[in-house]
């Protein structure tokens, strides 16, 4: 009987770390999804406001400066880190500034090391001030972040500029449908770059989402005619111009999907990183994108002015105030979107962004009094359904990853 008791106790003791690991994995996955849900709501609201304001500024107020607006909106991301720093400081008011600052820099350096090496344990030691690994040799992750900022920002800028270039060359339906196919390209790039497995449920969800976009764009016949009016008024869009616009926005769709995956692969902590640290670093990297935009991407503005392609003109009065609000809304959307990608995946984030199509249509209904068409409602429901499918799939993957991480850590402790 004695040996049996010992064996039974040993079995209970051997199982308890596994149960504890599963419980910890569930809590961490739930925390990630709670953060992701919050930032999803912020991104949807801020994008809707920004979209309505941008359309009003460009079309009704006549301040149609594509590159300048792109420069201001992306440049505003530089505020993400200072605002985050203020929030963190208010939460730790009891600490001296020097202690708080040193701890924050140490944390950022540790997370940046995780991003570069993809080694969660090395970064944890660095954040705790324990050193080890590359840090023992004075290694700095900042050069890596500088290089990553350059190529990620370049992909983002070219993708964003394609939208502004194509907006007057093709129909709104084509623009919406083609650009939002970036969800498909995000999934396509995720397979080789993120080593993501091809899953039937994810492929089905992405397909349903794209079908939903096509239904919204073309279901009421809005894109059936090549003689659709351009955004400038009643001018007819030439078929050749429309084709060129579609090719430009198609390239932009590919690049935007690539930008999301590049950001996830090279500028986000790997799976298994604490959710709070993921939020902190996402906003920090967003500020790096904003800084690169402000200090480097101003160069085309005077060139465009001299060539006469886009005359520089300072906004004044109502235009200036509304542009300021639009820029702030874009900063909130972009920061939230970066956090969403960091905590979940580029595919889920892309499909989540498609929800804004339906939300903007609803807001337009309230603003203009024009009811939603049956196609808009049906397409919106398809997008919502696809987002639900992806959310469930991502939730299962996050639970599996956290459980695997916790089991690995408990195994290391036993050793």
From TrEMBL:
Keywords: Membrane, Transmembrane, Transmembrane helix. The chain crosses the membrane at residues 35-57, 69-90, 144-165, 177-194, 203-219, 239-259, 280-301, 321-340, 347-367, 373-395. GO terms for biological process: intracellular calcium ion homeostasis. It comes from the Eukaryota. The keyword Nuclease does not apply. InterPro entries: Csg2, EmrE-like, Solute_c_fam_35_mem_F3/F4. The keyword Membrane applies. One of its GO terms (cellular component) is endoplasmic reticulum membrane. It holds the Pfam family CSG2. GO terms for molecular function: enzyme regulator activity. This is EamA domain-containing protein. It comes from Staphylotrichum longicolle.
